[in-house]
Amino acid sequence: MVENNVMELVEKGLMLPLMEEFYTIQGEGFHKGTAAYFIRVGGCDVGCHWCDVKESWNAETHPPTAIESIISNAEKYSDTIVITGGEPLTWDMGPLTEGLKAKKMKTHIETSGAYPLTGVWDWICLSPKKNKLPVGDVHQKADELKVIVYNKHDFIFAEEQAVQVSEDCILYLQPEWSVRDKMVPLIVDYVMQHPKWKVSLQTHKYLNIP
Questions:
Q1: Model pLDDT, residue 50
Q2: Among its keywords, does the record have Cytoplasm (predicted)?
Q3: Residue 163 belongs to what domain range?
Q4: 9 FRET partner, CA 20 to 30 A, in 64, 90, 106, 172?
Q5: Is residue 27 marked as binding?
């Protein structure tokens, strides 16, 4: 009965499978270089073969945690909260983000958009993946489009995604870390030829921080 109650709370977004939470410097995209508190939620079935947090995929390995506890921890560190995964939209983000906003915190999400958008957001970073495309209206609501470039075809995919976002959305191409030496020169050339795009790097890895 206790387990059933917990699962019901998870389904309602009142508890979430919390993988980790930490205070660090945002390493990617528009807000790179700024301090933020990261909440990494377990659970993802998008299945990117180059994912560097595959341990986040199985939600069952991460303890269901009351959102009150998550919010309490977050407000000790920063007023900017980044919710990531895994794929956070696997779960209902409404209760968590409403609780964070009630504490006057700014809510950011990093998502593939593979599940319907829930929650109240100050910033949406959409990072779409080929093997499970975004659904609903997340393209039009995205503040930032970040496409990971693993091979040359990803430039075509990036353009397919870019035509779906609003004209105010900021466009980023980011090399997948394991092939960065090969892809960075191609990205640089592409951005110079298509200046609507910007280069994003995983600067936290260069800084050797989480």
A1: 82
A2: no
A3: 2-206
A4: 106
A5: yes
